[in-house]
Amino acid sequence: MNRQEWRAAGSLAAVFSVRLLGLFMIYPVFAAYARGLSGASPYLIGEALGIYGLTQGLLQIPFGLLSDRIGRKTMIVIGLLLFGLGSGIAAISTSIGGVILGRALQGAGAIGSVILALLADLTLEENRTKAMATVGVTIGASFMVALVAGPIVAHVIGVAGIFWLMVALALAGIAITAFIVPNPRRILVHRDAEAVPALIGAVLRNAELLRLDVGIFALHAMLTASFLVVPGLLRQTLNISSGNDWMVYLPVLLVSVVLMVPAIIVAEKYRRMKGVFVGAVVALVASQALLYLGAGNLVLLLAALTIFFTGFNVMEASLPSLVTKVAPPDAKGTAMGLYSSLQFLGIFAGGVIGGWANQHGGSSAVFAVTAALALVWLAAAATMAQPSYLSTRLLAVAAGKAGDAEGLAARLRQVPGVAEAVVIAEENLAYLKVDTKAFDAAMAEQLTGAA
User: Are residues 236 and 366 in the same domain?
Assistant: First the structure.
């Protein structure tokens, strides 16, 4: 990538991070804080924790589509203002209803799809995957940093203080967007980075993509439901204060990352994706079973958390990769948009279902629900097709070669290593699915005039 592209990737990753840091910091400390709010019940606490996922999931694709019309930066600023407003309302609220309203407004600033579309505007086709990977790594790092930092920050400034910190982070994100993120020369629809409404029906009819959507929905439902009760169990079992939770989360997360890395290497390098994927779901089932059977036992609790976060990290790394492998070459952005929406709707479902279970049956009922979710996911994962191990490649098509789009696509399918090819004449782009070990890039570029 050139300097401009690194600047775009770094600054947009920073905008993503400042928003996610605050959202994830809340997870390990929210349940205990919310019990002191007027009108709170276990169900409403779960709703408050998860409601931002509902508005985020519903508005993610519309925000991206609006940004095609009124501008990427405009929509990012609007989204961050909504996020900041919701954070301020949550900070000053003394009732659970006020916090629910604030959290819903936080999620209404659904800028994830807009950030990715802007990143696509600012990068060349051949460098876009690297830029997207930079943002993806930042998201994963933000999650882990936030879980460790949340209890420490809450101990210093309180949970209301974290909400005020989110206001400051929203303003920082606006400043980064306005003054550091480059301005795109033009706004285009990028089928590899954003949803195309005309393709949504075809993506929803793809059974393999639906299995992956079920997976990300279940994964984040399990995460959100678990955080309604796990922090309390840690304090009871270890007899530690809420400000010291980080001493558990830090080693658990570090061990889970160490265990995740070889699993991802085996899955990608040695092409054992399905085996690793199903194994990770089995690990998630086992973690929920351990939490159900031995939540009050220190050894079982720590083992369950380590197993859970190992499976969680493997899935966070492998699910997006699988979506790109399975999605048609010209529908990658649409598939990822629906996948992201299901992720956030899973957060909402985990909050409300976990809150309901906690209210009616305590922590054991929560883990019974999450174990059932994991078993449903295991059934879907076990019957998935073997992944194709194909990657998406974009090639610019010279103006003189774009007229016969179907003919050019047919010729591209004859190139060694090309499994699928779609040429969009109005975009002057060819979308390819290729086996990178066999792909003859020079021949494909000669056909498209990209060289």
Answer: yes
Average pLDDT over every residue of 181-186: 88
Quote the tokens at residue 433: 């699915």
Residues 210 and 184 occupy one common structural domain: no
Long-range Cβ pairs for the range 268-273 (8 Å, 24+): 268/321, 271/389, 273/318, 273/321, 273/322, 273/386, 273/387, 273/389
pLDDT in tens, 323-379: 988 898 889 899 999 999 999 999 999 999 999 999 999 999 999 999 999 999 999
Give one DSSP letter per residue of 212-242, joined into a string: HHHHHHHHHHHHHHHTTTHHHHHHHHH---G
**What element of type H or E holds 395?**
strand 391-396
CA distance 117 to 127: 14
What are the strands of the beta sheet with 429-434, ordered from one edge? 391-396, 429-434, 418-424
Share of the chain above pLDDT 70, in %: 99
What are the structure tokens assigned to 139, written together? 């998201």
Read off the CATH number of the domain in which 427 is found.
Answer: 3.30.70.100
Per DSSP, 419 falls in state E
Burial 399-432 (b: 16+ CB within 10 A, else e): eebbeebeebbebbeebebbbbbbbbeebbbbbb
Burial string for 178-190 (b: 16+ CB within 10 Å, else e) reads eeebeebeebebb
- Are 128 and 34 members of one domain? yes
**CA nearest 193: which of 140, 121, 286, 241?**
121
pLDDT tens by residue, 150-182: 999 999 999 999 999 999 999 999 999 999 999
C-alpha closest to that of 18 among 257, 181, 185, 261: 181
Rg (CA), the chain: 22
Structural domain harbouring 404: 391-448
Count of domains observed in the chain:
3
269 and 401 housed in the same domain: no
Phi, psi of 395 (to 5 degrees): -130, 135
Taking the chain, what is the end-to-end CA distance rounded to the nearest angstrom?
A: 17
Distance of alpha carbon 199 from alpha carbon 334, whole angstroms? 7
Q: Which of 329, 214, 322 is nearest to 274 (CA)?
A: 322
Q: How far apart are CA 348 and CA 280, in angstroms?
A: 23
Does residue 298 sit in the same domain as residue 162? no
